[in-house]
Design brief:
MFS_Efflux_Transporters; membrane; cell membrane; about 80% helix; transmembrane transporter activity; mainly alpha; 17 helices; Growth Hormone, Chain: A; single chain; globular
Length: about 400
């Protein structure tokens, strides 16, 4: 699969926008998506203290990851179609505002039902925001800067999942899980202010309709391949990653070192994101295969290896590099697969990504409650191993 310009004639850059203003807008969107994805994944690092405080099992507490994932999977195409005629800046601002309010509600919640309602609202924001932000670089920066700007935007996704989570975990360990949710809520409101100030109006230039979704699947084999690959990689990753804290605890890692290890994972993930950004222009399918193989190797190493801090850190570097490469690589695949229908392809990708988060957390919860934390590593590794196999089959057919 070769790289082509993902911009369609309907997605011309906003007129009169200077490169500096465009890059400031890109940074505002990146901060927003960082706050958004940190909100979705924050319970991963706080699973044990939240469950203890609310008297819930780890499997039940994982619903805090499952619910927004399921809702986001539905919201991605719904929001994209429902807001097709509305200024993209206004939609993004409203969605990030919901994130700020919902996290503050979680911090003040008196019952698990209220927490799940807040997580439901976060799911709506995740699906809609990410679906629209996926191709926003096409509208904000010059054509030659689009690949770099896309990597920066998806650096926000990756930084959230691998840096925002450990930062939230550390905050929760020091000041309580409610404080961690409140901090992310405030971050969401700061993101809202930045987008209001720095983003120009981004008027929709092509109206997406429901028929675009099945059409892009039917007409583009590479889109279908990308959907399946995304499902396997993300479901496999989150089946195991959601329960990384209890896995490390069961392996003997001290509780106060887990946030440090998640931070190591995060730094490696940021490096993986920008490394993939440099590779996908010329080695896209090889990068996808490498992601699947490294994820599988990392999960297997955690399952069979020792769990002292040093060995765990080495394995988490590999895992972080692999997962860090996922967002920009898979988004690039989808944009290249359907260059004339980027919003439809992006909404399907975001929907699949978040559905996979939900299914991974749910399946992992069942496995943990039935067979213990280590079981999820083998399940997750088996799924990610299918990624390079599928790519090889797809290339042979092509």
């Amino acid at each position: 699969m070769t790289t082509i310009d993902a911009r369609s004639p309907d997605e011309a850059r906003s007129p009169g926008l200077s490169p500096v203003r465009g890059w400031l807008a890109i940074l505002a969107v990146t901060l927003g998506i960082f706050a958004l994805m940190t909100s979705e994944l924050l319970p991963v690092g706080l699973l044990t203290p939240i469950g203890t405080a609310l008297d819930l099992s780890e499997g039940t507490t994982a619903l805090m990851v499952t619910v927004p994932g399921l809702v986001a999977a539905v919201a991605a195409p719904l929001v994209t179609v429902a807001t097709a005629r509305i200024d993209r800046r206004l939609v993004l601002v409203l969605l990030i505002g919901i994130v700020g309010a919902a996290n503050l509600a979680s911090a003040l919640a008196t019952s698990f039902a209220i927490v799940l309602l807040a997580r439901f609202l976060i799911g709506i924001s995740v699906g809609g925001f990410w679906s629209l932000a996926g191709g926003i670089a096409l509208r904000l920066v010059p054509e030659r800067h689009v690949p770099r700007a896309t990597a920066v935007v998806f650096g926000g996704v990756e930084t959230a999942s691998v840096l925002g989570v450990p930062a939230g975990t550390l905050t929760g360990d020091l000041a309580g899980w409610r404080t961690a949710f409140a901090a992310v809520g405030v971050l969401g409101l700061i993101s809202l202010a930045c987008m209001v100030i720095l983003m120009p109006k981004v008027a929709p230039q092509r109206t997406m309709v429901w028929a675009d979704l099945p059409r892009v699947l039917r007409d583009h084999r590479a889109v279908r391949t990308g959907i399946v690959v995304t499902f396997l990689a993300i479901t496999g990753h989150f089946t195991a990653y959601t329960f990384l804290r209890p896995i490390l605890q069961d392996g003997g890692v001290a509780d106060n070192m887990i946030s440090v290890l998640l931070l190591v994972f995060g730094v490696a993930g940021i490096c993986g994101n920008f490394l993939a950004g440099a590779l996908v222009a010329t080695r896209l399918w090889q990068t996808v295969c490498g992601i699947g193989l490294l994820l599988t190797a990392a999960m297997a190493a955690v399952a069979i290896g020792s769990h002292d801090v040093r060995s765990a850190a080495v394995v988490l570097v590999v895992w972080g590099l692999a997962y860090g490469a996922v967002p920009v690589t898979f988004q690039t695949w989808m944009l290249n697969a359907a260059p004339a229908a980027t919003e439809a392809a992006s909404s399907l990708y975001v929907s699949t990504f978040n559905l996979s988060i939900a299914l991974g957390a749910f399946a992992g919860g069942l496995a943990v409650d039935a067979a213990g934390p280590m079981s999820v590593l083998w399940i997750g590794g088996a799924l990610t191993l299918l990624v390079p196999l599928l790519i090889m089959v797809a290339r042979r057919r092509t």
